[in-house]
Amino acid sequence: MTESAYAAHERLVGPARDRCEIWRLIAGCATIVVLVIVLNLIVHALARPFFPALLTPEALEGNTPGSLLFLLFGFVALIIAVGLAVRLLHDRSLASVIGPLPLALSQFWRVFRMLVLIGVGLLLLPPYDMGEGLVDNLDLSRWLILLPASLAAILVQTGSEELMFRGYLQQTLAARFRSPVVWMVLPALLFGLGHYMPGEAGDNAPFVVLWVVVFGIFSADLTARSGTLGPSIAMHMVNNMSALLIVATPDSLSGLALMTTPFSLSDTEAMRGWMLVDFATMLVSWLGARLALRR
Can you tell me the distance from the alpha carbon of 279 to that of 253, in angstroms, rounded to the nearest whole number? Predict the structure, then answer.
């Protein structure tokens, strides 16, 4: 049943089979890490004389529009690094990691529309202020002016992460191992560990990681069912639009949000209840995405 449901995955896994040795994957990941570090150092060195305010420790928390846009567009480095790694070590193009582009775009749009409709529906349900008064962050007119750049930046950030985790890692592991436990769960675990922030989330940090791991597994499922990265990018993008553009936490990455929560990410009592809501929302979004792919 699983193999039948994931038959489309072969479109992505097939091109990875010729060079799927584990040493290549390890070398590829090391190459990506080094390239991302080097590219970011170059960008920071070039930007520092002209935009010093974007490179202060406070700015790197992303709590102003300019600093958050700078951080999000910085994920272009990850796209470049993944593209070079797959070419040098696996003799693949970046396009082969995404899947057939017309199909990927079609699937992206179908899932994106469905999840935006679900998101709007959830916003119309009570409580309208997360049980406490939300805090105004950006003026609506400024938020709307920034919206095109904000959406482009989030697409870059989410697309780059999907290229890495549901693209390069998942596909290379699936070419080597048949079991979904390996190629679905291992990239999701690495994805989750990348979001471990005990300094910011405090005792909530493990729950944040758990949420991200489950999100990664759902995204892997959508990728395997669709045979492109379109649906996973769409789900990731809609999630981050909600978290970065609509209601953000005030701790960090709030620079483009219309509103912020009255509590921080480390507030155990307030956040635990809303994490349950987030888990339920993620489940509904995943099921909605699967429904959109069947239409």
Answer: 21
